[in-house]
Amino acid sequence: MEYAKYESIPVGVAPAVSHNLTVEKLRTLRSLGVKAISISLDGATAEVHEGMRQVDGNFDETLRAISYAVDEDFMVQVNTVVWRRNIEQLPYIAALLKRMGVKIWEVFFLIVTGRAVAELDITPSEYEEVLQFLTEVSRYGIQVRTVEAPFFRRVKLERYNGAKFTGHLYKTLVKELRILLGEPYKDFDPHFIPTRDGLGIIFIAYDGTVYPSGFMPYPLGNIRRKSLVEIYRTHPLLIKMRQADFKGRCGECEYRKVCGGSRARAFSRYGDPLETDPACTYLPKGGIQA
Predict the structure, then answer these.
(1) Which pLDDT value is given to residue 193?
(2) Which pick of 7, 63, 133, 266 has the fewest CB atoms within 10 Å?
(3) How far, CA to CA in Å, does 4 sit from each of 32, 94, 201?
(4) What is the average per-residue pLDDT within 42-65?
(5) Burial state string for 92-114 with b = 16 or more CB within 10 A and e = fewer than 16
(6) Is the confidence at residue 289, as pLDDT, over 50?
(7) What's the sign of the alpha-carbon dihedral 229, 231, 232, 235?
(8) What is the torsion angle, in degrees rounded to the nearest 10, for the CA atoms of residue 131, residue 135, residue 138 and residue 144?
(9) What does the alpha-carbon distance between residue 179 and residue 181 come to, in Å, rounded to a whole number?
(10) What is the DSSP string of the chain?
(11) What is the pLDDT of residue 147?
(12) What residues pair up with 145 in beta bridges, in sequence order?
């Protein structure tokens, strides 16, 4: 971090929460020029959060770490994995972040890789309802981002343009959100950062292996043998991904250049990064979104 500061390279950190993440450590990070920090919170209660994290006492330590980081003037982003056991707690997590002064909520959707198993995931219809709910959260001054659910962009555009949604889970979650935070004070937000796996995002592992994202174990090369710039610009898979040259419904979708689907989920399900994202329920109308 000292070297990055010397080279004027911005650094963000995503530390594991433990008793070692003290105010003194955070102040040291700030002195080294670190401005952004992300901390994981996967439930609104200790039972649910620690059911995911598998560390006793981690819930209270996580809340303390978030509070410390806000007080030390970091740009604090809270990361939450949507999974089977916390789906009904999402309004309470949103309200908790609002009360703590957190401005950015990055919501991760499950990819069956590493330690993640399919039994933890929610259904495609629940994906749609949760994403519709997240558009409501953004009306309370919280910037909501999603990881591996890029069709949130399509949902945001639809809601901004006046589309209505009436799913049962959505209505239940929104009702709880209104009880906790009152009526929203902002309009629907159509803005998003136009990146996705392999397009503005790239992942380099500890051994130098390059992947399209941290959730797609599809090796593209190694920076010990080839430059990252060359890999990013010339790898055939990345070129197809950037051109939105997909298969199935994703290839026919008018939102394919806005959304593009989760390439990691397509790879996890079908073994082909260019296949349709199986979590998206949208039926394309054809044509190309400008």
Answers:
(1) 86
(2) 7
(3) 9, 33, 20
(4) 94
(5) bbbbbbbeeebebbebbbbbeee
(6) no
(7) positive
(8) 30
(9) 6
(10) -HHHHHTT---EE-PPPSTT--HHHHHHHHHTT--EEEEE---SSHHHHHHHH--TTHHHHHHHHHHHHHHTT-EEEEEEEE-TTTGGGHHHHHHHHHHHT--EEEEEE--SSTT--GGGPPPHHHHHHHHHHHHHHGGGT-EEEEES-TTHHHHHHHHHTT-----HHHHHHHHHHHHHH-S--SPPP------EETBEE-EE-TTSEEESBTTB----EETTTS-HHHHHHH-HHHHHHHTT---HHHHH-TTTTT----HHHHHHHHS-TTS--TT-------S---
(11) 93
(12) 106
Q: How far is CA 281 from the centre of its chain?
A: 19
The pLDDT score that the predictor gives to residue 290 is 33
The residue type found at 143 is Q
The two three-digit tokens of residue 275, written as one number: 């296949």
Please give the pLDDT value at position 115. 63
Residue 37 CA to residue 158 CA, distance in Å, equals: 31
- How far is the C-alpha of 77 from the C-alpha of 53, rounded, in Å? 18
**What are phi and psi for residue 166, nearest 5 degrees?**
-135, 25
Residues in the chain, overall count: 290
List the structure tokens of 93: 């997590």
Task: Convert 56-91 to b/e letters by CB count within 10 Å (16 or more is b).
Answer: eebbebbbebbebbbeeebebbbbbbbbeebeebbb
Q: Higher pLDDT residue, 118 or 102?
A: 102
